[in-house]
Amino acid sequence: MDDSHPFPDEFSPVGSSYYYAIRFSPRRLRSRLALAAALYLAIRRIPVQCADPAVAQEKLAWWREELNRSHRGEAAHPVARRYPQLLSSLGLSEDYADSFLSRVEWEITPTIPADWVAVENHARDTTGFLTELLTRIGGGSNDQLRVAQELGCFLHHVEVLRNLGRDLRTKRCYVPLEEQRRFGLAPADLLGLKTRSELDQMLRERAKALESRYRQISAVSTTSALGPVVRLSAIAAVLLQELSREGIDLLRQHTSLTPVRKFWAAWRHR
What we know:
This protein has helices at 17-23, 27-44, 46-49, 53-70, 78-90, 98-108, 116-125, 127-137, 142-162, 164-169, 177-182, 187-191, 196-218, 227-246, 259-267. It has one domain (17-267): Farnesyl Diphosphate Synthase, CATH 1.10.600.10. With 270 residues, the protein is mostly helical. The protein is 67% helix and 0% strand. It is globular and about 55 Å long. α13 runs antiparallel to α14. The chain contains 15 helices and no strands.
């Protein structure tokens, strides 16, 4: 494969979580890891970047066709042009991203998931798509691919928690109905940021459950092929600690880590 994709690039700039996750990987892998992250982020960010669902649908449709064109050697976008080489080097089929694309389409006009099983399935086809691809690039075994999926789900759940306030303000909600009912809440309570004590309890309990999940997964994960995924998860675990302390306040702000904190979290798993 022609490892010509730049690193860092606009999707893994210096100071970002993706930069540090990839930077501590072997030099020979960085270009392909950056390419995988670029493909994922270019598509995954469409529902957030496009306020108009019609525009988002049009942009996603363009990416679908661009990936199809890439397999015919007709793609225009540099990420799409290099994508077939990546798939070929890993022995993956042309439809590898189909489930991922379908899940992103759901996010453009989402409905509230019924339960955590639905959220988990969504996580496996979105963030899990990326973590599995990164691990394949590193030569991961089947066991490591399973761990990568678990870490991908963890990353997704932390992302949902961190972005909950932003998503609610744009009429999106990824907290399942069963969880809302367990705390005596309804979608209107979340969208209106009402019933403070119940919301605060739900958010703190969710953060605690995610911290426990991370400890269990990290106990069986090793760096090697999982390197960039382990580092992304380590950074997310530090972020989760901040979110856990904030409780309901996280609904009114968008918490981020400084580049220095990201660096140290990733460095410990280099």
